[in-house]
Specification:
By secondary structure, the protein is of the alpha/beta class. The chain contains 10 helices and 14 strands. Helix 1 packs across helix 9 and helix 8 packs across helix 10. It starts with a strand and ends in an 8-residue tail after the last helix.
Amino acid sequence: MAESVRWGILATGGIAAAFTADLLEMADAEVVAVGSRTQESAKRFAERFGIPRAHGSWAELAADEDVDVVYVATPHSAHREAAGLCLEAGRAVLCEKPFTLNVREATELVGLARDRGRFLMEAMWTYCDPVVRRMVELVRDGAIGEVRAVQADFGLAGPFDPGHRLRDPAQGGGALLDLGVYPVSFAQLLLGEPDDVQARARLTPEGVDENTGILLGWDSGAVALLGCSLTADTPQTASVTGSAGRIEFPRGFFHPERFVLHRPGRDPEVFAAQSGARRFQHEAAEVMRALRAGETESPLVPLDGSLAVMRTLDAARERIGVRYPGER
């Protein structure tokens, strides 16, 4: 692969714009194409960011031979279709979180990528963040002993109108998939897939969850207390408590600037970000590293881990009674 990795952007919404802006500041990345459902939308996005080619369909972008990797930034209800098109056309794919609508779709995507020998990664930026990676190293080195409990929450105050995508079942609406994926992924980064999943939620009139609590349990005795909301501005903090100490993340635990390590008999230790890289650049850098190394999966965001998170989200949805149109 050439020194510069050539990116295509699939979709033109807010997350696509934020990712593209960060990508354009990376010297070893080049954004060469954008694709949307309409030519007009693709053209506007291309003009805004100085992108050479604007495609009026996802299939046209997927077929663009000058694209090394496609960033899929659609709502998650379309991830299976969009990422699948790109993989079938021979493109590597970075697919926004949550990976898909459910584990069935995620399994299909992973199978397709592995069958075709193509790179695929969920865009879980938290896993690629240097501050989070340092925390994982400390935990695995025994800095806080055996992990006993994880706490994390992510809630937005709203209100969101009934027509908003977060309340639309057809777009995979609800707090759990859009926001709850972060606390769940954080807990499973440390403890793996849980042995027990419990959840309770208040549902909207449309039938998606708007305020949800999740309790995960492991046979080791560890637990995770997690929350997500479309009706409350929660602290958005996280903590990891072990038998010999604890680690606390301030607001914004999913893209943190620092954390604090507390151990008995010692002063608190602050671990802060050393890099000036912007938030999306860490995951983009990991994709480009993997592509240059000829890898089809990232060790930081392994596909089996993404499948495990989707199984937990499916189990939580089953407990709270949320089902999306077309699900079997």
